[in-house]
Amino acid sequence: MNKQKLPLRSGVGVVILNNENKIFVGKRKDNPVDKWQMPQGGVDIGEDYLTAMKRELFEETSIISIQVLKEIEGYFEYQLPKNLLGIIWKGKFRGQKQKWFIAKFTGDEKEINLNTKYPEFIEWKWVMPEELPVIIVDFKKAMYIELLKVIRKFIS
Q: Full-prediction pTM beyond 0.90?
């Protein structure tokens, strides 16, 4: 499969901070080893990034109580590893180009419910920002390191 001919999927992601500036991560259902990620997903046709982010966040975590603090400038990309090419997203994309947001969780943790219509996470936790590159799957590590630079500036 020629990876270069496949386009990047348009996506969004959100850094959810709690009152201690720890970050929400979920353990993916399809990768239950000790790998975690922040909520993220695709943009539907005709949907703006902010709407897509809120929809994805709700679909994955049931979270609605947030205050959007920042839309991060630019885009962040990652490429799928060869073993996932042609499998994820029905084989239509080689990776994602994402718009990211930073938001504060303003609700009660009882609001967080991973048992959604299409569950993606099996567990969740709050982590220190510097833990992100350590706990993410390898093919997203470079993107998370770039995101971490923005997060650190924002919360320091």
A: yes
- Round to whole Å and give the CA distance between 132 and 57: 18
Query: How many CB atoms sit inside 10 A of residue 3's CB?
Result: 13
CA distance 142 to 114: 27
Domain that holds residue 65: 3-155
- Tell me, what's the pLDDT at 32? 63
E strand or H helix at 149: helix 141-155
Whether residue 23 has pLDDT greater than 80: yes
* Number of separate domains in the chain: 1
Per-residue exposure over 111-136, b if at least 16 CB sit within 10 Å of its own CB, e if not: ebebeeeeebbeebebeebebbbebb
- Written as six digits, the tokens of 6 are 């496949």
Quick check: 41 and 56 in contact, CB under 8 A? yes
